[in-house]
Design brief:
This protein has helices at about 30-45, 60-65, 75, 125-140, 170-180, 200-215, 230-240, 280-290, 295-335, and strands at about 45-50, 90-100, 100-110, 160-165, 185-190, 245, 255, 260-265, 270. The longest helix is centred in the last third of the chain and has 44 residues, at about 295-335. The chain is globular and about 90 Å long. It has a six-stranded mixed sheet, sandwiched between helices. Strands 7-8-9 form a three-stranded antiparallel sheet, with no helix packed on it. With about 325 residues, it is of the alpha/beta class. The N and C termini lie far apart (about 100 Å). It is built from nine helices and nine strands. It has a single domain, classed as P-loop containing nucleotide triphosphate hydrolases (Rossmann fold).
């Protein structure tokens, strides 16, 4: 083939890109999506999840089940002599997870000691302080004159609240915690160890909890007021009808009908964690990871953090105004003297 006859491709066609060479009207605006995807793949993602609940409700197991890895505090730092702390402690551990080329920094924040004492009055305060401290750290980075190109995000994006499977109603502790914390963080309530309830007990318990949440003005994720359009509202309404999710966690693998599954083995059979006929773990996983992860992060940044930022900046303005007033009064007094 002669030199002049060789095909000329000044812009190699990327994988998955369509050839629009013959389309005279094509501009290429849709290429922004591929540019954004490549940039996001390079930067990676961050997700910070807090788990709150009494000891023994399977918080660590559920987190390991969600990410199919040993990501919980107890899995990474086993301590056979660990005792129930006298006060609430906040412990976090971070992991770098990669799947199909997508990198994510996952931080799991545990709250050992919550609800384990005889007197649990105000036990939500250390958790509230921790969440606000992360907002404050982000704010201080944001208002720096020479701020970082990408601010490290330690803000709590989601709080999974574990409700004991009593089958009756929410405890005053549950109501008080969710009522206060739902104003500063996305809360997703779950019924822990749901395999201890019959299907009838589970449905009754879920309905009772939903009624108590409405009666106490507790707005859990996904919040109605943040639905962006009719399509979002339709999808989120179905999720809201299932809240709280009745979940079962397990990091043990079994063979069932020739398939490997995560489950809990009992005398009468195997409870399959990802089988929606057995529990609602799959719905929780889809909400947190597969369908609403970015929305959870967006609401954290544009709603919860923004409310904190506005309040703090208003406080700073008030302090400056009061300081200026004192300075003016001092000058007047000194002039008269």
């Amino acid at each position: 083939m002669s030199e002049s006859a060789k095909p000329h491709h000044p812009h190699p066609q990327g994988k998955g890109e369509k050839n629009h060479g013959s389309d005279f009207s094509y501009v290429g605006i849709d290429a922004i999506l591929e540019q954004m995807r490549r940039k996001a793949m390079k930067q990676g993602f961050e997700l910070n999840i807090m788990v709150v609940g009494q000891s023994g409700l399977g918080k660590s197991t559920l987190m390991n089940t969600l990410f199919k890895s040993k990501v919980s505090r107890k899995s990474v730092q086993p301590d056979p002599e660990e005792r129930i702390p006298k006060t609430i402690e906040i412990k976090s551990i971070s992991h770098d997870i990669e799947e199909k080329g997508v990198r994510m920094k996952l931080t799991v924040i545990d709250t050992p000691g919550f609800g384990d004492q005889i007197n649990n009055e105000n036990c939500w305060q250390p958790i509230m302080k921790f969440i606000n401290d992360q907002y404050e750290a982000y704010l201080q980075e944001e208002i720096n004159i020479n701020r970082k190109k990408r601010i490290p995000d330690s803000r709590v994006h989601c709080c999974i609240y574990f409700i004991p499977p009593t089958g009756h109603c929410l405890r005053p502790l549950d109501v008080e915690f969710m009522r206060r914390l739902s104003k500063v963080v996305n809360i997703v309530p779950v019924i822990a160890k749901a395999d201890t309830l019959t299907l009838e007990e589970r449905d009754f318990f879920k309905q009772t909890i939903r009624e108590e949440l409405r009666a106490n003005g507790i707005d859990v994720y996904p919040q109605k007021e943040f639905d962006e359009d009719a399509e979002d509202r339709m999808i989120n309404d179905k999720i809201r009808e299932m809240i709280p999710f009745a979940v079962v966690g397990s990091d043990q693998e079994y063979q069932v009908n020739g398939k490997r599954i995560l489950g809990r083995k009992t005398k009468w059979g195997t409870i399959e964690v990802e089988n929606i006929a057995h529990c609602e773990f799959a719905y929780l996983r889809d909400l947190l990871i597969r369908t609403h992860m970015q929305n959870i992060k967006d609401i954290t940044g544009s709603i919860h953090y923004e409310m904190y930022r506005v309040r703090r900046l208003n406080e700073s303005s008030c302090f400056r105004a009061v300081g200026l007033l004192y300075y003016v009064l001092w000058c007047i007094v000194m002039c008269r003297c």
